[in-house]
Amino acid sequence: MHKKYVIAGALILAGFQAGLAQAADEAAYKAACDAAEEARKMSAELKYEWNTVAPLIEKAGAAATAGDFGKAVSLCDEARLQSEAAVAQARQQADDWRSAVVK
């Protein structure tokens, strides 16, 4: 009799832990997506937004909707890195044009 309660309790606990893990994954996705979107906006302000970033963010949203938060976080991280690289490129090229001018 007690064995049934122990098993039922273990199953309930496992379900609760799975729910907490999904909530943590969802929170990680939201944080990664917010960071990617912020970096994308920065690159867009500099008029150096790469055309690969928005599709990555869209794919991340689709993955999150499907419940694959690990893939969604990975896609958002890639979008953030590409946006940061675009910002770095914009800043570098803002300075490099001076060396290309004939004196």
In short:
With 103 residues, the chain is an all-alpha fold. It has one domain. The protein contains 3 helices and no strands.
Q: Which key features would you list for this structure?
A:
mainly alpha; 103 residues; 3 helices; 86% helix
Radius of gyration: 22 Å
The number of distinct structural domains comes to 1
Report the order of strands and helices.
Answer: HHH
| Average pLDDT over all residues | 82
Largest sheet: none
Topology:
Elements: H1 2-45, H2 53-65, H3 69-100
Question: Can you offer a commentary on this structure?
Answer:
The protein is elongated, with a radius of gyration of 22 Å. α1 packs parallel to α3. The model is unreliable at 16-21 (pLDDT under 50). By secondary structure, it is mainly alpha-helical. The chain has 3 helices and no strands. The protein has one domain (2-100).
